[in-house]
Amino acid sequence: MSKNNETSSPALKRSWFQELKAEFGKITWPTRKEVGKQSVVVIIAALLVGFIIAGVDFLLQYGLTFIIG
Description:
Elements: H1 10-26, H2 32-68
């Protein structure tokens, strides 16, 4: 069994970092305006889901109280 481990080679590590840097260069970051719009959509969706859950909870609580009491 050979102890030639390719993952510990300095040339391989350097190549990995170069590839990582190249990949980061390909990223297209959203603009501030796009981030703002997407944030508003996420907040509205979270509020909507929260209201739906609260409504279902209220109806279940009211229904169970009506049945039991």
